[in-house]
Amino acid sequence: QAQLVESGGGSVQAGGSLRLSCAASGNIYSGACIGWFRQAPGKLREGVAIITTAIGNTWYVDSVKGRFVISRENAKNTVYLQMNSLEPGDTAMYYCVASETKTCYYPESRWAESKYDYWGQGTQVTVSS
What we know:
This protein has one helix at residues 26-29, and strands spanning 4-7, 10-13, 18-24, 33-39, 46-52, 58-60, 68-73, 78-83, 92-99, 118-119, 123-128.
């Protein structure tokens, strides 16, 4: 069964760090784009970071550039999100997503939720001030 399994969420004080992991079943991981979306209470879901499994191209939403790093470990079919200098505004449920198409290569579709075929169950990140 195709699936994405997230881990690594938790609670941390502002300025701290967390690393999220997303383990993907093989058929998903061999697709084109894997990454992370997040949803804070009362807010719309937004894309955070995306990576291509083949080449390792990366993209970030402006609010996390310089603080978050997305990476992949192909031997383990796993994508990571290293989150540094966390802020209370980063508090959200974080979802791992994957697309079977090269949607992330195109700016007009990169952050479109509907373009991602697979979603994990989510992992909570809470940052206190």
